[in-house]
Design brief:
The chain is an alpha+beta fold. It has two domains: 248 residues, P-loop containing nucleotide triphosphate hydrolases (Rossmann fold, 3-Layer(aba) Sandwich), CATH 3.40.50; 123 residues, abc- transporter (atp binding component) like domain (Coagulation Factor XIII, Chain A, domain 1), CATH 2.70.50. Helices cover 25% and strands 35% of the residues. The protein contains eight helices and 20 strands. The strands form four sheets. Strands 10, 13, 15, 16, 17, 19 and 20 form a seven-stranded mixed beta sheet that branches. Strand 19 and strand 20 form a beta hairpin. Helix 4 packs across helix 5.
Length: 402
């Protein structure tokens, strides 16, 4: 029998809105004539959602902002009630929905541990036995008797996560908490989750925008889109589908992307374009194929001892690689006028996805910056490859032996 059943759940909200003078007058006439007033349609945060979860499953819930992920978790934690449908939960739930959820700011950290345990129905004696473990994991020994309202958001989530993952609940519901706090504590949280999942066999529902966490921790994933289940099943397949949706969305927003540039005013970047292994100008590049990157610049003032450099970065500005010209080009003087610099790339190793390019120029013995820009051009890498397409950014040219 499933530990969680979600049966045709719909959640509707009435959107607030400001009406114009024309709408107010029209509604006044409708009211006088006994006709129904014009109202905005209700917003469906969840729209006829159904699924079940077996005991011991680890299910990741992903989707764009506003897809209904947090709304669904709040219903599963019995924080909210659905407009239609019903949810059956067979077991105790430890929810960690958001920073500070379930933590009373007026109480001390110690008092909140006992309060949360009582809410979960755990005897005071059991909480007392776990108290030292919870405090030690939270790293808040010095502040445990201080009211939580004095805590930073990072300290609050440390306390909340420590409480939720130490109590003997049947189901753990986690919403974006692994992304909060310092890097060392994030690592501790991740390790704790793996212990709960692999050694204790807890039933876990996890919402995260870190898709690689979903791929690693979960044995099933659900992709929500505008309140509906878009896809459900194997985490790798569901996450790949979500990545593809993001790629399409990013591509449609390319014209609105903002570049980041700084410079001395001595050059202008005129154009960046790509050509494929046949020499044809292209907008997308093929994985593992030769290509060329062309930089057209206009030099407004002659420059000496010039070095060019470019790099690829992810759309969230994670730097992936950099390549400079200093060991291959010896440019003692770059005269006034238009120039085109080309860099040939052999067997482009970037896996399919959307990336951006950055470009920089330095001059003189001190290598002063003449120009530097990020996100100067978005481009897509495409191609069928014989490996899982989202395991990182690069494919290794490696071979197994026995």
């Amino acid at each position: 029998m499933p530990i969680i059943e979600v049966n045709h759940v719909t959640k509707e909200y009435q959107l607030g809105h400001i009406t114009s003078l024309k709408e107010n007058v029209a509604n006044a006439y409708r009211r006088m004539a006994g006709k129904p007033l014009h109202k905005r349609d209700d917003f469906k945060a969840l729209d006829d959602v159904s699924f079940s979860i077996e005991q011991g499953e680890v299910v990741g819930i992903i989707g764009h902002n506003g897809a209904g992920k947090s709304t669904l978790l709040k219903h599963l934690a019995n924080i909210s009630k659905p407009t239609k449908g019903n949810i059956i939960v067979r077991g105790s739930v430890a929810p960690l929905i958001e920073v500070g959820a379930g933590v009373n700011p007026e109480l001390t950290g110690r008092e909140n541990i006992f309060l949360n345990g009582a809410i979960l129905g755990i005897p005071k004696k059991i909480i007392q036995q776990k108290l030292d473990e919870i405090i030690e994991f939270s790293e808040l020994e010095q502040f445990i008797d201080t009211p939580v309202k004095r805590y930073s958001s990072g300290m609050t989530v440390k306390l909340g996560f420590s409480i939720a993952t130490s109590m003997e609940a049947d189901i753990l519901i986690v919403d974006e908490v692994l992304a909060v706090g310092d890097l060392a504590f994030q690592r501790k949280c991740f390790d704790r989750m793996e212990v709960l999942i692999k050694r204790q066999g807890k039933t876990v529902l996890l919402v995260s925008h870190n898709i690689r966490q979903i791929q690693r921790l979960c044995n099933r994933a659900i992709l929500l889109d505008h309140g509906r289940i878009n896809m459900e099943g194997n985490p790798q397949a569901v996450c790949d589908s979500f990545y593809e949706q993001n790629d399409r969305k990013i591509k449609t927003n390319i014209d609105h992307a903002q570049t980041r540039t700084v410079g001395s005013g001595e050059i202008e970047l005129v154009e960046i374009y790509f050509s494929d292994h046949t020499g044809q100008m292209v907008e997308s590049l093929l994985y593992n194929q030769n290509c060329s990157i062309h930089f057209k610049i206009r030099v407004l003032q002659a420059l000496e001892e010039v070095t060019f450099g470019f790099g690829f970065h992810a759309t969230d500005f994670l730097y992936l690689t950099t390549h400079n010209s200093e060991e291959q080009l010896n440019i003692n003087c770059l005269p006034h006028g238009d120039h085109e610099i080309i860099c040939n790339v052999n067997r482009l190793p970037l896996l399919p996805g959307i990336y951006s390019i950055r470009f920089g120029i330095t001059a003189g013995q001190a290598a002063r910056t003449i120009f530097f820009g990020e996100s100067l051009k978005h481009f897509q890498v495409v191609g069928d490859i014989p490996i899982t397409i989202r395991e990182g950014f690069f494919a290794l040219d490696a071979h197994w032996m026995q």
